[in-house]
Amino acid sequence: MQARDMVRRLYLLSIVFPMVFLLILSSFSTAGAQNGLCEQPMSSPATGDPVPLSLANSDLSPIAQPSVPLDPQAQAAIDAARASLEGNPLPSSSVFTTTNTWVNRSPANPPFARRGHALAYDVSAGKVILFGGLGWDGSPLNDTWAYDYSTNSWTNRNPTNPPPARSSHALAYNAAAVPWNATILFGGRNGINLLNDTWAYNYASNSWSNRNPASKPLARAEHALAYDTSADRVVLFGGTGWGGSDLNDTWAYDYAGNSWSNRNPASHPVARNSHALAYDASAGNVILFGGLMSGSGYLNGTWVYDYASNNWANRTPTSSPPSRSNHALAYDASAGNVILFGGWDGNNSLNDTWALRVNEEVSLSYNLTEGWNMISLPLTPASTNPQVVFGGLPSPWYLFEWDPLAGIYIGKELISLRLGAGYWLRVPTAVAYSVSGLPNVAAQSGINLGLNWNLIGVPYEGVIPWGAVRVSKDGGALVTLDQAVSSNWIQGMFFHWNDSTYDWVTAGGNFQPLFGYWAKTKVTGVQLVFLQP
C-alpha cells in the first residue's frame, strides 16, 4: 500500500498546480440496461491535461486522461514504484514479465517432484492445472494441483473423484465447454497398462467427471492434445499404442456431444510418439513439431492441421529447431508465436527456446484526431513494444494503459501491447496511421477484469454486437451481457472517448474495432468474453 500511495503522490507532485480539472457525476436510466442507474464519465476533458486521479475504487467517473509530459525525475520515481508492485496480485492481463528471460519462481509449496505429468492453462480460473505423472520412485500419481502466477503459489486441490493414477497422458483446456469450462484429459500409462479414458476437470466445482464416451481412440501414451477454438474440438494426434507401436491417427473430441471422431485425413504426419501440439489462434490451425519415430530416430518436422479442410500440411520452414522428443509447445497470444522449449535428442536434455510464426499479417488503419484518442489493437504485431509499433507517429506522442489494481497509468516504456487492452494515445496533430500484425482467429477471446473501471479493447477486426458478448464470474458458466448487467456484475454502459466527449454502447449497440472502452465491474472475478464476428 505504501508503494501505491507513493505513486499517487508522485503523480500529483509532478503536475504544476493549480490545474483545472472537471469531474461530472451523472446518473440516468439506460435504455435496454437492466441495472437501473449507470455511472457516466465526464462529458469533456478538463482545460489542459486532466490529472490522472486514481478513481478505480470510487463511484465517480472513469479515470481522466493522463497528464503529459511528466518531469523526468518524477517519471523515473513512478516507474521504480510501479516496478516494486511486481509480485502483488494483479489482473491476469497485467502480469509483469522480464523480456527474454526465464525466471525461477521458487514457490514455497510446490507439488512433489515428478516427470511424465501434464499441464494446461485454465483461462477462466486464471490457473495452470497439473495432473499426475511419475513420482521419485517411479510410482504413478493422480493428484490435481493449481498454480496461481499472481500469488506464486501451488494449491493441492484434492478433488474427491480424480482419474486413476497415470503418466504420459495429455491435457487440453476446452474454453467452450458448457455449462462449465473444462480441462480435458485423455489416455496415458498406468504401469504396463495403456489407458483410453476421457475425463473433464472443472476448477470452479473442483470436480473430475469420467465422460465415458461411446466411441474413443485406441489406448495410448506419449500422445498430444490441443484445443482448436475455431472448431470447438480437442484434437489428438499419434502416440504409443499396444506393443510399443507408433500411431499416426487424428481424432477430434466434441465435448457438447461427448464423442470422439476419427478424422482419417488423406495426408498426415508419419507415426510418432512424444511429440507436441499447440493451437495457433492467429493462424486458426493446430501446430505439430518433432517427436520420436520408434526404430528410425528423432524428428524435427513442422506440420499444420486445418480442421475445416481436415488436412495436414508439412510447412518445411526455412529454419527449424534440431530434432527432438519430449519437448513442449504453447501459443503466446500476445506475441502471436508458438513457443517451443526443451526436449531430448537421444543423448542430451535440451534447454533451447524457439518461436514459430505461421499466419499472414494484415494491416489496419487508425484515423487519429489531434490530442487524446482511446484505442485498442485487434491484431498481434510482430513486436509488442509500443515504441516499435507506433514509432512512426509524429512526435511527441504518448501512450498510457490503466492498471485497475494499482490505480495508476503505465507509460509506453512499460507497456507490452496485447489483444483485449485499451489505451490512451495522444498525438500532436491529426494523422492516419497503419499497424500490421496477425489477425485474431480464435472463436472467442476473454478479458479478465479488475474491480471497478477497466480500459479494454475489442480483440477482433470486425464489429462485435452487444449480443455477441458473454460474461463469466469466478470461472463459472458464460451468461449473456444482459444477464450479467441484470445480476449487477457489470455496468450496462461502455464508454468510448470521441475527440471531445464520450460516446457509449448499451444493449443493442455495437463495439467497434480499433476503439478502446471504459468498462465498470460491480464485483470481482468477472471475465468479459467476445465471440468472433
What is the structural class? mainly beta
Helix percent band:
under 10%
For the secondary structure, the number of strands is 38
Neighbour order of strands in the largest sheet: 3-4-5-6
Which outline best applies? globular
Q: What is the beta-strand fraction?
A: 35-45%
Distance between the termini: 41 Å
- Poorly predicted sequence stretches spanning 5 or more consecutive residues: 1-62, 67-100
List keywords for this structure.
single chain; disordered N terminus; 533 residues; mainly beta; 7% helix; globular; 4-stranded antiparallel sheet
Describe the protein.
The strands form 12 sheets. A 4-stranded antiparallel sheet has the order 3-4-5-6, with no helix packed on it. A 4-stranded antiparallel sheet has the order 7-8-9-10, with no helix packed on it. It has a 4-stranded antiparallel sheet with strand order 11-12-13-14, with no helix packed on it. The protein has 533 residues and is mainly β. Strand 12 (233-240) and strand 13 (246-254) form a beta hairpin. The model is unreliable at 1-62 and 67-100 (pLDDT under 50). 7% of the residues lie in helices and 41% in strands. The chain contains 4 helices and 38 strands. Helix 1 (2-13) packs antiparallel against helix 2.
Question: Briefly, what is this?
Answer:
With 533 residues, this protein is mainly beta. The strands form twelve sheets. It has a four-stranded antiparallel sheet with strand order 3-4-5-6, with no helix packed on it. Strands 7-8-9-10 form a four-stranded antiparallel sheet, with no helix packed on it. A four-stranded antiparallel sheet has the order 11-12-13-14, with no helix packed on it.
